[in-house]
Design goal:
about 25% helix, Alpha-Beta Plaits, about 45% strand, single chain, 5-stranded mixed β-sheet
């Protein structure tokens, strides 16, 4: 059963390859959706796939790429959507 989750990641998460690393991680996990920077310095993403893979992504988001300093990850259920792949917006 596929689910979709909406994430907001706060901290030092822009300018540290967070979006590209998230895209790579999500694709490796077989997830679909998108990731983008927000004007306030946060990163937003929608990810869809198996619950266990979404949990793995959430755990990875707390760490992020080496230069990131993650302070908060907010995760809520999102409406089920269909995406072809996982992309950076």
């Amino acid at each position: 059963m596929n689910l979709c989750r909406h994430f907001i990641v706060s901290g030092q998460v822009q300018g540290v390859f967070f979006r590209a690393s998230t895209e790579s991680t999500a694709r490796r996990l077989g997830l679909t959706g998108w990731v983008r920077n927000l004007p306030d310095g946060q990163v937003e993403l929608i990810a869809c796939g198996e619950q266990s893979k979404l949990k793995e992504l959430e755990q990875w988001l707390w760490q992020g790429p080496p230069r990131a300093r993650v302070e908060q990850v907010i995760c809520v259920n999102a409406e089920l959507q269909t995406f072809r792949d996982f992309i950076v917006r």
